[in-house]
Amino acid sequence: MKKILLLGSGELGKEFVISAKRMGCYVVACDSYAGAPAMQVADEFCVFSMLDETALRAAIAQHQPDLIVPEIEAIRTEVLLQVEQEGFEVIPSARAANLTMNRDRIRDVAVGLGVRTAKFSYADTAAELLIKATEIGFPVVIKPVMSSSGKGQSVAKTAADIATCWDYACAGMRGDRQKVIVEEFIHFDFEITLLTIRQRNGQTLFCEPIGHVQERGDYQYSWQPQPMQAHYLKAAQDMAEKVTTDLGGAGLFGVEFFVTANEVIFSELSPRPHDTGMVTLISQNLSEFDLHARAILGLPIPQIDCTEGASAVVLATQDGKDPQYSGIEAALSEPGVDVRIFGKPTTRPYRRMAVALAKGPNALPRAREAAAKISVLV
Length: 378
Ligand SMILES: Nc1ncnc2c1ncn2[C@@H]1O[C@H](COP(=O)(O)OP(=O)(O)O)[C@@H](O)[C@H]1O
Ligand SMILES: [Mg+2]
Fold this sequence. Notes:
Mean pLDDT: 96
CATH architecture of the largest domain: 2-Layer Sandwich
Number of strands: 22
Bound molecules: adenosine-5'-diphosphate, magnesium ion
Distance between the termini: 40 Å
């Protein structure tokens, strides 16, 4: 039986634990607060900040896991690099976790591999940001190099916005590096997540592309398959294969692309299941969590089937604790609809608390209708 130390215990971790437990694993779920979703289904749990070097080292030493599986970005990844040297296995690799924690590092890797990205530059001060943004041409997107879920991210339409964008980025920054990436604004037709699976034995596999819509830096709804031209899909798969091969290791990656009228542009990647991929809980025979578990355990993945499916998030509206949910019966009374309640102990405005899933024709409007029926009560 493999022992897994899961770093981060949110809703994605919870589904991963369920998949791993079905394959007979023993899972220790870690996060900075007790009662986190994945802890509710794991064998053991451990509460500490993943950014705390001493605590992270101690948890690894105490539990002696066969596999260390990061679920979030905000981890003291230097520790992962060290323990990998000592013989622990980090999924997919310590280097992947370390590079993707920093937007600039993974972007530099992609560019080094000849992968097409938006025009971009970096800035350490507001003055430098203005120069770089002017060079790229407005509008530009500004993001802290260390942040996730859209934190600190904004769009500058003109030079007059730069000071506000800089301050907003500094406020949303994680870690000790005051640095932003400034990017050309891409007027995409749609954006996709291409779930890419690196196997221990066997070729790299791809799921059908997932289309999604983002608001305030978080995904609101996603659907699969997102129709796209065959040569664009091939271009995305080639880029995904290049970058994930460079990162190495086994596991599932969420690779994000923008698709315009003329081309496919690489955006970023997560070396772990992706939130927009929750749709695969209903659209695929093996969800992204099942696929991650199989890939890291070296189990075969002979076929990935996909039917039309969609997911839509249910958000909290205010601060509170021990939330109750109304409208679940109404949502579930529709055929082909399912719901996942994450079981988070506290709420805050816009916190993702549950997801509605639908499959079959018109899956997207039906998932959104189902999500709209559910309210989070505190
Ligand atoms: N250069 C860009 N042009 C247009 N939209 C962008 C650009 N960069 C990001 N976005 C939008 O913001 C969302 C979040 O940005 P992303 O870089 O994926 O950050 P995060 O790590 O927070 O997910 C994207 O999914 C996309 O909708
Ligand atoms: Mg993203």
